[in-house]
Amino acid sequence: MKLFAVIGDPIVHSKSPRMHNNALQVLMKNAVYTRYHLKDNAKLKEIVNFFNGVNITIPFKEEAFKIADFKDKSVVDIGCANTLLNKNNKIYAYNTDYLGFLKAIDNFCNIKNALILGAGGTARALAFALKIKNIQVTISNRSSNRLKHLSDYECCLYSNLNLHKKFDLVINTTSAGLHDTDLPCNEIILKNIFSNARYAFDVIYGKNTPFLNLAKKYNLKTKDGLDMLLWQGVFAFELFLDCKKTKEIFKAMEIALKLP
Ligand code: NDP
Q1: Domain span including residue 17
Q2: What gap in Å lies between CA 199 and CA 153, rounded to an integer?
């Protein structure tokens, strides 16, 4: 039997076990998917070696990059991995967050440029996804430290954002919004940006974030991170089991997510 897991801190709320286990059952795979609460960066490699494959979530995606023996091109570019395969005692690293995001925005039309709020691992994955679609990317953050590592993109602090620039798509990759009242940046900045934009995307899922609520007031088409979560899971499953039954995997994971 094969063994898979999602590793993170915290991990108790992760939806990945229910998504993957339902797909494993529906596709009759001899495997099980669990979760592992890791507290110490230094132990990641030791724990990964125990599984056939793992998904990596906050805060270990950069460490996952570091421990890999082989890195997919996307992983090299993004600098983070969310999917690791353990084959012949070697660790292979992939990033399915960016693929999941591209699927999630599949029906967004005619996007020429995008503004990403936040500069963490998710922002880097999404910037890479947009770059390969030839979409011009600007990344903005509340502090400068993380922006220093994003030299491939136009970057600025929120305080230096050009409020007259037109962005077709505005994306929140920060954790602001997990709390019911928080916006990623000053409301006046967002109101200016939204008044010229067409789409808003929030990586947070399962709740109406203040960011998306404000975007709706400006008649933007909005989307939360649920489809991204689903699709990153589908692509990870395909890698884990070398299984290309994409539609069946998606359906099984979607059903699992809707369960109470
Ligand atoms: P990181 O910790 O790498 O980066 C967090 C970013 O958010 C930083 O730029 C940080 O700014 C900023 N930030 C954090 N809190 C606030 C706040 N209160 N106000 C403004 N900015 C803030 O996190 P990740 O990029 O890995 O993950 C970000 C989010 O994406 C998480 O909520 C995660 O759950 C979600 N996610 C969703 C996925 C999906 O499938 N839907 C997949 C992957 C992630 P600073 O640099 O100043 O600290």
Answers
A1: 2-95+226-258
A2: 20
